């Protein structure tokens, strides 16, 4: 008598949590099932939002794709440590592009009250959080509002990026994976992130722990296009180890 579907699902999820990935072929062999039935299980788990399917298997789904209100409560201590390091990189008189999202909002909260600089953003949330900073010039990029992430996206927003340039861009993503790279859950949002990165001398990724080893559907940028990854994940984390091995600069906010 084989395993019931519910037991297989439970097994796959526990393996995903333990190993950070599931390879359909290996699981099929281990459980004495066809690869097709393992793939069907993974499809069902993905449909329920419990994993992200990739070629040959599945990866953990990033908790960072939950709606904005929920994401504020995900890993706040981790985001605070990363934000403190990012904020220390913003020099007086410089221009910095801030992506939307809860990680960059933490950067805003970490900026010194008396800092004099320019912040460019496509996030109304970020822009309004900067109203209390008397010396920060805020430049808000317009376009269609993508409500899930509270940012502007689409053709008009991408076009608006052509008028700006900055020293730094702090990029938020939902997944950072040594094989699948830097990813996010929406194609338009990924395109906007690329457009912003193209306008900055250096792009740094804000990588709170829940994003490390996770993957979403749309690729944002290759690792070669970023100046570094700011994270507080331990150096022994397998993804961080692999990124270091690949020569990706990792800035330790721990």
TrEMBL record:
Keyword Transcription: yes
One matching Pfam family: HTH_DeoR
Any GO MF annotation of the entry: DNA binding
Gene3D superfamilies the UniProt entry points to: 3.40.50.1360, Winged helix-like DNA-binding domain superfamily/Winged helix DNA-binding domain
Keyword terms of this UniProt record: DNA-binding, Repressor, Transcription, Transcription regulation
InterPro entries the UniProt entry points to: Carb_Metab_HTH_regulators (IPR050313), DeoR-like_C (IPR014036), DeoR_HTH (IPR001034), NagB/RpiA_transferase-like (IPR037171), WH-like_DNA-bd_sf (IPR036388), WH_DNA-bd_sf (IPR036390)
Residue span, HTH deoR-type domain: 5-60
SMART domains membership: DeoRC, HTH_DEOR
Reported function: Repressor of the lactose catabolism operon. Galactose-6-phosphate is the inducer.
Protein name per its UniProtKB record: Lactose phosphotransferase system repressor
